[in-house]
Specification:
Layout lengths: L9 H12 L6 H14 L6 H13 L4 H13 L26
Helix pairs in contact: 1-2, 1-3, 2-4
């Protein structure tokens, strides 16, 4: 059996998830944020508390993962882009945005 792993963004993600837990009527940004966290921790060997809380949040919002995926696909297809107030930690690694022409 493999030991639980520690995710480097656990503390930031815990804060974001705690904020989401307090929301009764989620906005587009909230749906996208939960979907992002679910993807980040999918099949992650550790952070069981986050995964458990995300499952509880889906129930609180009367959703399942398939519903959330449908909602967020629609949100993104309608032109949603993360606001400038989003933390850089909320996006990908940033590697794909680096300019490969610079040496």
């Amino acid at each position: 059996m493999k030991a639980a792993q520690n995710h480097p963004l656990y503390a930031t993600d815990r804060e974001n998830l705690d904020r989401l837990i307090g929301i009764e009527s989620p906005s587009q940004h909230d749906f996208v944020e939960l979907a992002r966290l679910l993807i980040r921790y999918q099949n992650f060997k550790g952070a069981e508390d986050l995964n458990s809380d995300m499952d509880k949040l889906l129930k609180k919002w009367s959703l399942n993962r398939k519903n959330l995926e449908e909602i967020t696909r629609k949100i993104w297809s309608e032109g949603f882009r993360p606001s400038s107030s989003s933390s850089p930690d909320n996006l990908g690694s940033g590697f794909d945005t680096s300019d490969s022409t610079e040496s």
